[in-house]
Amino acid sequence: YPLPWQDCPVHNGTVVPECDKSSATAYFWYRTTLDAAVSIEDPGAPRWWIALCLLLSWIIVFFIVMKGIQSSGKVVYFTSMFPYLVLTIFFIRGITLKGASAGLAHMYTPKVEKLLDPKVWLDAATQVFYSFGLAFGSLIAFGSYNTPKNNCVRDVLLVSVCNAITAIYASVVIFAILGFKAVSNVQKGIFQAAEGTGLAFIVFTQAIVELPGAPFWAVIFFMMLLSLGIGSQIGILEGMLCTIFDIEIFKRIRKQYIT
């Protein structure tokens, strides 16, 4: 405390112009966290802190999947349930914030004309394919461990319903927080929009700054993102590893070495 992206940096008594034109959060994300290059033609040197974080992430993933389903199966319970816990905490906090109702009203106000826009359907299909892990082989890989008499139709319906409910639940949390942020911005005369990674790492984190006890919310939010990322990576790798483990020539080699 205070969070490092709370205020713009000051050099020689003057606020950095780039930060002043955008926001403290956007400046911190692009200039401190990523230290993004000015152009793709001039990428500069690799950023050692990003490389170390990437290495650490892969080491964590290795220890989780090194024995196949024997090790990853137990961890998946945590990576699956922890985000729900964090979402619930944010939900309780979010709906009590000023402006949350405005965000939820915006979310639930139907815009029927959007159904005529092909891009909306493309975005929806992309989200569903990604959240299911279709074409990654994750569902097939984990399903291969089921007993021959397993009720696959029941599992498909259960996964589909849980996926839909989770998407709606997460949207409620996000729009409640964004409603709070939007009302706060209007009062300050600030207008900002973002999508993709910018939504998580700029807009949402900027909203966290304004919450009482901001460091606590920041810690659990980024722990949730880390948990979701590792959970996704486990599924993607499992689809490949379980296939390799079943190849006859590899069955005599310990799974740790293959992994």
Automatic annotation (TrEMBL):
Localization of this protein: Membrane
Transmembrane annotation, as ranges: 48-69, 81-108, 120-145, 157-178, 215-245
Keywords: Membrane, Metal-binding, Sodium, Symport, Transmembrane, Transmembrane helix, Transport
GO BP of this protein: amino acid import across plasma membrane
UniProt cross-references to SUPFAM superfamilies, sorted A to Z: SNF-like
Gene Ontology CC entries for this record: plasma membrane
Magnesium keyword on record: no
Top-rank taxon, per record: Eukaryota
Topology versus the membrane: Multi-pass membrane protein
GO molecular function: amino acid:sodium symporter activity; glycine transmembrane transporter activity; L-amino acid transmembrane transporter activity; metal ion binding
InterPro entries: Na/ntran_symport (IPR000175), SNS_sf (IPR037272)
Pfam families (UniProt xref): SNF
Record has Repressor as a keyword: no
Binding site residues for Na(+): 131, 163, 228, 232
Family: Belongs to the sodium:neurotransmitter symporter (SNF) (TC 2.A.22) family.
Name by which UniProt lists this protein: Sodium-dependent neutral amino acid transporter B(0)AT3
Organism per entry: Asbolus verrucosus (Desert ironclad beetle)
